[in-house]
Specification:
Blueprint lengths: L26 E3 L2 E7 L13 H17 L5 E10 L8 E12 L2 E9 L5 E11 L8
Antiparallel strand pairs: 1-2, 2-4, 3-6, 4-5, 5-6
């Protein structure tokens, strides 16, 4: 049984304590949750480009943080990701997320990764389900 906790401090995406994590720092700006990330060479797939799985991780985490920062513990139930441009390593990008809908325990969010100059490299939409303490099982 897993526990839904804010105190384990090892989230791969956002924990400053995780030695191999991304160490993302999010902030709220009105209805948008945002962070900046610069990929290193250890994050690449193709030479010089951020791995697609990590692009999906950035998008998923931004949406989850939008909820978390509003006191909602939720898990990703479904996510659709569209990749439109490569994300180079060594270049700061912005990831941002916002709510687009939802009802009851279901939340619908969108996110995008923005390259310097304003071009969008990837987008995602996702559905999240609210969870209760101790409700996650192996």
């Amino acid at each position: 049984m897993y526990s839904v906790s804010r105190s384990d401090g090892m989230c791969f995406a956002c924990s400053p304590k995780n030695p191999i994590g991304l160490h993302l720092e999010f902030s709220l700006d009105g209805d948008v949750c945002r962070a900046t990330f610069t990929a290193g060479e250890e994050h690449q797939g193709w030479d010089g480009l951020l791995h697609g799985g990590l692009i999906a991780t950035l998008l998923d985490e931004a949406m989850a943080q939008w909820l978390w920062r509003r006191g909602v513990a939720a898990m990703t139930a479904e996510m659709l990701t569209r990749f439109s441009r490569p994300v180079p390593v060594g270049v700061p990008v912005t990831v941002e997320a916002w709510k687009v809908g939802g009802k009851g325990r279901l939340w619908e969010l969108s996110a995008r990764i923005i390259l310097p100059g304003g071009r969008v490299a990837a987008r995602a939409t996702a559905k999240f389900l609210t969870i209760k303490e101790g409700s996650l099982q192996t």
